[in-house]
Design a protein that fits this description.
Layout (H helix, E strand, L loop, with lengths): L2 H8 L20 E2 L3 H5 L8 E3 L14 E6 L3 H16 L3 E2 L8 E6 L4 H20 L4 E6 L5 H10 L5 E3 L7 H10 L4 E3 L7 E3 L10 E5 L1 E2 L10 H5 L3 E2 L2 H13 L4 E5 L17 H8 L6 E5 L8 H7 L8 E3 L7 H6 L6 H14 L4 E8 L6 H14 L3 E6 L17 H24 L5 E9 L7 E4 L5 E5 L8 E9 L4 E7 L6
Parallel strand pairs: 1-8, 2-9, 3-4, 3-5, 5-6, 6-7, 7-8, 10-13, 13-14, 15-16, 16-17, 20-22
Antiparallel strand pairs: 11-12, 18-19, 18-21, 19-20, 21-22
The chain binds S-adenosyl-L-homocysteine (SAH), iron/sulfur cluster and FE3-S4 cluster.
């Protein structure tokens, strides 16, 4: 669909659409709701690459106005917020750090689990009062929840005071969506169910000047049966290597110390290129030559994690040997129903290869407990896999059914109390293992990238090791933004205390 067709498509007369009849009073302006069915389709059409610019007529739109974006969800969303902040600033808006004096408020939402969504609906409830007090305030909902039909319908029905809803595929259209919302008294709904082109040259206002995120690809084609992401983020589209390399070079020149390459399934990077054979291993290899102290990526999918990547990572240097490798379950039967496309044995073999090539590598993971019909034995397989791999830490979740996904249709014989009890047992193991791993650091010297003052004590500085362990230690403020050597004096439950032994060991 080209831009012109999209525009035509947005001028739907709501009364033509039977299912929307109830809400037609709310929208006369742009009305383009999402469809999960369309979002599921994976077309063969070629991905186009386009550049971003602010249309002439919208320049200066934000003069004298302030914006505030509240972000929920993963790094992808955090980074989208940086892009939207960049667009706001390019339009002349100023940032503010609270809702009270904001002229535009955006909720950049996450749909991964029900409680993520509940938080947003709760927040909308609070913002209603503010909107009543200040009717000229523009209130928008964007991000992954906007891509869901049921959410858009609920907002139309229960929160009609929202001014605009737009999705993950068209954040570059923010200037025209804002314009539309200012012009119209009706709710502006512009959600593209199918992903658009890859847009380059997006302006970005990054959070901080020490660590930066760089998107390498968008979307996910894995369709794990429990997961909403392939529907909310569209099909896999990789950015061209030269664009990524240029962005990383630019960040290095600006003095950033750590880059995290982002994608929902970074191991699939490059699989959609038709003209070149180029994957994540090639990209990491090339980027590692750039003068940047630390390089990470997230998130990896075990199925596509290949030997070439292990070989490249084993070279070390600025390529960090901390790998986040979500396993989800230790039971091959559950993994099969989850459509993860690997078995327990495959995962363990991959871990063996990684540890062989990088003996000091630290592994972290994501685990879902209480997947439909998970048996006690299958859950215990997860515990035993956890013990076997000895992960440094894990994000653990109770399965949450997501409308439109295959798992949501499965019958489930596991009561919620059992799921909660399994989560507690797993968390006890996770905590115990993490504490044990942290204890091993006592007396050792680690490299810490100093990020700033500790949240609880401004007298103390805080930063992260190469393996993402938080370290608190006393040092002069001049150490902020540097990588320093710290001797660990005490391991606490989640963090480490230490003493700086040498300043700025690496100059970058
Ligand atoms: N792309 C990443 C994960 C993205 S979502 C990957 O595949 O590893 C982050 C984590 O949320 C997942 O790893 C999974 O553990 C969890 N998750 C996703 N959908 C979920 C659901 N429906 N219920 C509970 N947890 C879920
Ligand atoms: Fe979701 Fe699976 Fe894709 Fe990760 S790989 S985003 S869990 S569908
Ligand atoms: Fe949530 Fe969307 Fe990320 S659903 S986890 S914000 S991709």
């Amino acid at each position: 669909m080209n831009e012109q067709q999209r525009k035509e498509n947005t001028q739907v007369n709501p009364s033509d659409k039977k299912s929307d009849k109830d809400y037609s009073q709310y929208f006369q302006a742009v009305y383009m709701p999402p469809s999960l069915k369309d979002a599921k389709k994976r077309g063969k059409e070629e991905v186009k690459y386009d550049g971003f610019s602010i249309p002439e007529e919208y320049r200066g739109m934000g003069q004298g106005k302030k914006f505030y974006i509240r972000t929920y969800g993963c790094q992808m969303n955090e980074h989208d917020t940086e892009v939207m902040a960049g667009i706001f600033m390019a339009l002349g808006y100023e940032p503010t750090d609270g809702v009270e004096d904001a002229n535009v408020i955006l909720l950049n939402t996450c749909a991964i689990r029900e409680n993520a969504e509940n938080k947003v609906f709760g927040e909308l409830g609070h913002l209603k009062t503010l909107k009543k007090r200040r009717p000229d305030l523009l209130l928008g909902v964007c991000g992954c929840m906007s891509q869901e039909e049921s959410v858009v319908n609920r907002i139309l029905k229960v929160h009609p005071f929202v001014d605009m809803i737009f999705g993950t595929h068209n954040i570059h259209r923010l200037p025209s969506i804002l314009h539309e919302a200012y012009m119209s008294k009706e709710m502006v709904v512009e959600v593209w169910s199918k992903e658009g082109d890859v847009i380059e040259n997006l302006p970005k206002v990054r959070k901080g000047n020490i660590k930066a995120w760089v998107n390498i690809m968008y979307g996910c084609d894995k369709f794990c049966t429990y997961c909403i992401v392939p529907y909310t983020r569209g099909k896999e589209r990789s950015r061209r290597p030269e664009e990524i390399i240029q962005e990383v070079r630019h960040l290095a020149a600006q003095g950033y110390k750590e880059i995290t390459l982002l994608g929902q399934n970074v191991n699939a990077y490059g699989k959609d290129f038709e003209d070149i054979e180029y994957g994540l291993a090639n990209l990491m290899d090339e980027i590692s030559k750039i003068d940047i102290s630390r390089l990470r990526f997230t998130t990896s999918h075990p199925r596509d994690f290949d030997d070439h990547l292990i070989e490249v990572l084993a070279k070390g240097g600025n390529l960090l040997d901390h790998i986040h490798l979500p396993v989800q379950s230790g039971s091959s039967d559950i993994l099969k129903i989850m459509a993860r496309k690997y078995s327990r044995e495959h995962y363990l073999e991959l871990v063996r290869k990684i540890k062989q090539a990088m003996p000091n590598a630290s592994l972290t993971t994501d685990i879902i407990v209480g997947f439909p019909n998970e048996t006690e034995e299958q859950f215990e397989e997860t515990l035993s896999l956890y013990r076997e791999v000895e992960f440094d830490s894990a994000y653990t979740f109770i399965y949450s059914p997501r409308e439109g996904t295959p798992a949501a249709k499965m019958e489930d014989n596991v009561p919620m109390e059992v799921k909660k009890e399994r989560l507690q047992r797993l968390n006890a193991l996770v905590n115990e293992t993490s504490a044990k791993k942290l204890k091993e650091y006592e007396g050792k010297v680690v490299n810490v990238l100093v990020e700033g003052e500790s949240k609880n004590n401004p007298e103390v500085l805080a930063g992260y090791t190469e393996k993402s362990k938080l370290v608190n230690f006393k040092a002069p403020k001049s150490a902020i933004g540097q990588i320093v050597k710290v001797k660990i004096t005490k391991a606490k439950t989640w963090t480490l205390n230490g003493e700086m032994v040498e300043e700025a060991v690496e100059v970058n």
